[in-house]
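From the pipeline queue, job 12 of 40. The input is one protein chain; the requested action is below.

Action: predict structure.
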Amino acid sequence: MSAGGGKKAILAALTANAGIAVAKFVGAAITGSASMLAEAVHSVADTSNQGLLLFGQRRAEQEADELHPFGYGRNRYFYSFIVALVLFTLGSVYAIYEGIHKIQHPEELSSPIVAIVILLIAIGLETFSFVTAMRESRPLKGGASWWRFIRNSRSPELPVVLLEDTGALVGLVLAFLGVGLTMLTDNAIWDGIGTLCIGALLGVIAIILIIEMQSLLIGEGATPEEDRAIRESLVDGERIDRVIHLKTQYLGPEEILVAAKVAITLGLDIATIAAAIDAAEARVRRAVPAARIIYVEPDLYRTQPVS
């Protein structure tokens, strides 16, 4: 994924969440709604998260140096991991605490219609952010399901924004139900229940993100499609007979390290072997543009294929 598409989705989410956070805090102050306050804190967390994602992208653009010879691309994974932790601590834990407190000590809402109006406006803004993230993700998703895209994507920003926006939209519906049921039943415990549900929802989303970003952070290999394309591109059937073994790792969302040992046809001179390896690297880069760093080791003596 180029950073451009992800950046557009992040900026849309940041703009929407910043405006929503202000509106929710005003609504919470006027109405005393716990679910509205939990949603306001959620929006603050989301706004901070989008800022972290943008900062991570900027840090990832640093040139490689002696200390980090493979560059700084994994900064995008690191800051996405921090986003998941922020979502869990600032969003989920606070909402669960506030929900339990409001269930134990219900407080009547004042001007609940204000909360309803603000929630409806927030749903509209979050829908804009969510639709933007979906539009930017579709070219990368292809024919896969959205869940598979989130699980298999090596680019962190769009899955993070998609899950955050999904959580925000469902959370707004829960807050709407909490406030609405409080108005209908004149029982403020529903506001606390809505808040507790929001906290549980954010916790589930945060845990999914933590698992996915941790996997990317410690290093994931090429996708099955990319692995197959790399293997096919390395072999020319004349000078390179087969791939003996292949190891890949994403150094960043747009950069794969490829290390391969290949079986060379017997009887070739050094110059011909060097030319064969150069040609193989060029074929790999054409087939998988993200394969930017390639190391190919020739082997003249192995006679049996090794997987």
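Job complete. The chain has a mean pLDDT of 85.
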